[in-house]
Amino acid sequence: MERRIVCVGGGPAGLYTAITARLAGARDEIVVVERNPPGVTHGWGVVFWDDLLDTMHRNDPVSARALSAAAEVWDGQLLQVGRRAPVFLGGSGYAVGRQELLGLLTARARELDVDVRFGTSDPGPDLLAGADVVVAADGVNSARRAAHEAALGARATLSWHPYIWLGTARRFPTFTFGFVDTGAGWMWCHAYAFRADRSTFIVECPEPTWRALGLDRMPVEACLRALEELFAHLLDGESLLVAEAQRPAPDRPAPWTRFQRVELGRWHVGNLVLVGDAAHTTHFTIGSGTSLALGDARALGARLADEGPLAEAFAGYEAERRAVLAPLQDEADRSTAWFADLVRPSAAPTSSARPGDAVDDLHLAWSLWRRRGDAPTWRWHLLRATQQPALRRLRRGASSVRRGLRARRREHDASRRDAVG
Ligand SMILES: Cc1cc2nc3c(=O)[nH]c(=O)nc-3n(C[C@H](O)[C@H](O)[C@H](O)COP(=O)(O)OP(=O)(O)OC[C@H]3O[C@@H](n4cnc5c(N)ncnc54)[C@H](O)[C@@H]3O)c2cc1C
């Protein structure tokens, strides 16, 4: 039986659903429609970890290798309050530009005979009416979700903090959390390199600070210059950049937005099934939305190749992915609350240190490390010890060896699977 599968949205979720369905043996016609032209997307780089590469490698070594090749490693994290001495935290991972990720997924989808159509904002009644399966992969503001809001039991809540997703040519090889006192309240950035010549630079602050600084009304270029001034000590003279897809007219305010927490009572209705941000969101302070979107796509794509009833395939997909999502959503909620409590002027202190307390940035860093959940005491001792540059180098060396071994194991497992298959 040959079906027509239409994925609305050519982000990671839509493209990888199509790739996985094809690899799982689907002979169907598979169309991905993306409203943007090729090479255009919102935002900059996203982080991920080895677990994503492991899963992708098992599913499709070709796109997994392309992702490894396109990614930058970030090693360690750093907290800097104002111009005070930075505190170094551990941890390491990867980052990739959204554009690079979408480019490699599009190339792979086309190689597998998926019909990817750019510049198609609305798939139109013909394409949708003729579809056996419609995959809503149209992101956080999903129009497909909105059209079935009641049936899906959709709920969305907006975060307290406005944020803006910028880029910069300043290279941040260490994941950097920078807090600055603006005089009207705290503002902070999350910055990390995702290419040799580009880093992500996300700025967030409480709403009263944002309004008091006039950022809600300030035209885009003036806003960028104001942020460059506030974060001058981190930017080393480099500018802040807005993604072309999000650049407003020069007299319009910069593209600030608020995180939208999306939850659904169910992830499918009739022949419509939702994946990625269209189905659920996790706050970007835990850097998991893309990995979750790719995970959804892998689970759904594999089930679409089954020729059994769609309702069963969709229900199986939803159950599998809800189990993965739940703990991450809890961590994301805790992380969001950590940032909110830390800088809320009237709140009772919930952590042992705040950015305004000049006392102890080490304790603030420890609190930041534990924002997603508790950590064993030995981690605190490690944090203290690795403020010494020599021990920090040793730790980085160890994590680089671990990454290398894991990459070798992935290749080894892939060649064993090839030999068996
Ligand atoms: C500031 C910020 C930082 C982030 N950092 C990270 C990170 O470090 N790590 C991480 O894992 N995740 C991160 N995320 C989350 C991540 O970006 C998303 O979770 C991920 O992109 C979801 O993939 P998706 O395919 O579901 O949606 P999207 O990537 O949003 O893709 C949806 C696509 O659908 C298209 N579309 C929408 N409507 C239509 C329509 N009507 N017709 C055709 N096409 C349409 C859009 O143009 C878009 O290309 C971050 C998010 C933000 C906001």
Explained architecture:
Helix 1 (12-23) runs parallel beside helix 11. This protein is α/β, with parallel strands linked by helices and 421 residues long. The longest helix is centred in the last third of the chain and has 34 residues, at 310-343. The strands form two sheets. Strands 3, 4, 5, 8, 9, 10, 11, 12 and 13 form a nine-stranded mixed sheet that branches. The protein has a domain at 4-70 and 97-157 and 261-336: FAD/NAD(P)-binding domain, CATH 3.50.50. The chain contains 15 helices and 15 strands. The chain starts with a strand and ends with a helix. The protein has helices spanning 12-23, 50-59, 61-70, 98-111, 124-129, 143-147, 149-152, 207-212, 220-230, 232-235, 289-304, 310-343, 361-369, 377-385, 389-420; strands spanning 4-8, 29-33, 45-48, 72-81, 87-97, 115-117, 133-136, 155-168, 175-181, 186-195, 198-204, 240-241, 257-263, 268-269, 272-274. Flavin-adenine dinucleotide binds next to helix 1, strand 3 and helix 11.
Q: Please, what is the average pLDDT?
A: 92
Give the ordered list of helices and strands.
Answer: EHEEHHEEHEHEHHEEEEHHHEEEEHHHHH
Secondary structure tally, helices? 15
* Class derived from helix and strand content: alpha/beta
Flag low-confidence runs. Answer: 345-352
Bound molecules: flavin-adenine dinucleotide
User: Which architecture of the domain at 4-70 and 97-157 and 261-336 per CATH?
Assistant: 3-Layer(bba) Sandwich
CATH H-tier superfamily of the domain at 4-70 and 97-157 and 261-336: FAD/NAD(P)-binding domain
Classify the fold: give the CATH topology of the domain at 4-70 and 97-157 and 261-336.
FAD/NAD(P)-binding domain
Distance between the termini: 25 Å
Helix content: 40-55%
Assembly annotation: single chain
* Largest sheet descriptor: 9 strands, mixed
Categorize the overall geometry.
globular
- Assess the beta-strand content as a share of residues: 15-25%
Q: Mind telling me the CATH class of the domain at 4-70 and 97-157 and 261-336? A: Alpha Beta
Number of strands: 15
From the alpha carbons, calculate the radius of gyration and give it in angstroms: 22 Å
